Amino acid sequence: MKLHRRKSKQRERIHELVRASKDHPSAQAIYDRLKPEMPSLSLGNVYRNIAILLEEGRLQSGEFGNGTVRYDAVVSGHYHFVCERCGGVSDFAMAARDEITEAARRLSPHRISGHTVRFYGICAGCLGAEEIKANKRR
């Protein structure tokens, strides 16, 4: 039985911020970005509201290699790119391949519900910074 929750300005603002973010912010980053406009906001409020948004299926969470859980408002199947240099996470513009999940279902005795793919490498921002440094040395 799903509980009916009152609409919360903080919760809606947290969802808006995550939806508008391309960097998959952590709870701390969400708190840091919203605190100036919402002085009564606490980190505990952020975590409680994130939990509700996850339960409602309006956010998804993921840990991308550094132990920090990050949040994403794109809840449909999609892939991610993780920069090995700066740790940045972004959505990868490639359609999720349902046939991978189907193949896994055929091969496994487990009940497969989906899959994730993460691409790793150096992001364009870090590559640009690398190029700038190389040009300065010349």
What is shown here, in short?
The chain has 5 helices and 5 strands. It is an alpha+beta fold and 138 residues long. A hairpin with a 5-residue loop joins β1 (60-63) and β2 (69-72).
Largest β-sheet summary: 3 strands, mixed
Which sequence of SSEs, written as H and E, runs from N to C? HHHEEEEHEH
Return the CATH architecture of the largest domain: Orthogonal Bundle
Question: What is the CATH fold-level name of the largest domain?
Answer: Arc Repressor Mutant, subunit A
- Integer average pLDDT: 90
**Number of extended strands:** 5
Number of helices: 5
- Structural class, from secondary structure content? alpha+beta
Q: Strand sequence of the main sheet, in spatial order?
A: 4-3-5
Distance between the termini: 66 Å
How many structural domains does the protein architecture include?
Answer: 2
What is the global morphology? flat
The named CATH superfamily of the largest domain: Winged helix-like DNA-binding domain superfamily/Winged helix DNA-binding domain
Describe the structure.
The chain has 138 residues and is of the alpha+beta class. The protein folds into two domains: 73 residues, Winged helix-like DNA-binding domain superfamily/Winged helix DNA-binding domain (Arc Repressor Mutant, subunit A, Orthogonal Bundle), CATH 1.10.10.10; 63 residues, Dna Ligase, domain 1 (2-Layer Sandwich), CATH 3.30.1490. The chain is built from five helices and five strands; from the N terminus they run αααββββαβα. The longest helix has 14 residues. The mean pLDDT is 90.
